[in-house]
Predict the 3D structure of the following.
Amino acid sequence: MTPCTAPHLTRRHALASALALTSLTLLGACGGAEGDELRDPRLLLENQALRERAQAAVNAGLVGAVFGSQHDSADKLYLGAAGQARLKGDAMTGNESFQLASLSKAMTAALVAHWVEQGKLRWDSRPTDLLPEAAAKQHPAYANATLAQLLDHRSGLPTFNDPAEVARIADFVATLPLPHPTTDAARRRVLSGWLLSLTPVVGAGEFAYSNAGYTVAGAMLEAATGQDFETLMRQWAEPRGLQPLWQPPANAAQGYEGPAPGKLQPATGFGPEVQPWVNAAKPSGDVWMTPAGYGRWLAEHQRAFQGRSHGLPAAYVQRLRALRSGDYALGWEGSWLHGKGALVHSGADQGFMGLTVLAQDGRSAYFALTNTLSVEPDSTSWVMDALNRGLLDLLNR
């Protein structure tokens, strides 16, 4: 098999910052999954292969890692875990909740697509169509920015991917009159008005990965529906078997950060003045979910791409089916692996990193999650390198 040459994804997708093998978890072993193993006997050893990649990533310095895969039937999730959920604590089992960070951007995009289908807003809706108070201070470059451009990172809004940009939020909050807004939705609306006043980083229609764009899109969605983002996401996700959370649950792994293996410390937040405003950016990626839950999310895509019954918006699926290598749309980047189209994405935030590869024909999905984060100023990451190597090994078998 020709070696896989997937693009190495780095932490363009984070909002901010910065040993032993365990038992595997099997889920939903249905007849379709058994058919997968008959078609490809290597899958009888899939759990072992995933555990070996997880252990290799831990050997490279990660605190803990979980690798997962699903195949043709999408009825069975294979998982392999290694390392620890907490330093000097519990072994990683694969049943922990992880911070998905920007891996959940696709969930925001799918939710927006649903409400576009319902006629509450349009792909060509502009921010000030729904947030009219922003018009007075909006930078002229955003006058014709559209909802679709916000979700495709083509609005020109600043990225807000590194600590220096988060510091700008602190400076902005310091200028606000008291009392400050008390809900995420109200903070998100105020934050969106400020973001739309900032100088663009690229020209209209050019690509620049932007957490700010997804934050504004979330505020537009709330204005169009009259409901807050979390409520909208829960109402849409739960019938699809998904249970997104925005606070770490009791089974959450502890996140760690550090410049190198052996130099890791527990991840910290941004301080009481700034953290609520960072939380307001949750449409850009702030979901906690177990590997099993994330596998269900990917399985919806696999069924959709195979033309089977699914719960995703039609326009969302159509865009992703047609996405070309190197292009970006609705929370995914197009790639080309082994002569076939694929969708990829990475995520990182406050002690967690993740990486996903989803075949555009729906025949396979691979992902890796870790409770370890490290990103250098040039966007390189030894943690993402370890996840990337593991997924490439799996894809190149």
User: Anything to note?
Assistant: The chain is about 35% helix and 15% strand.
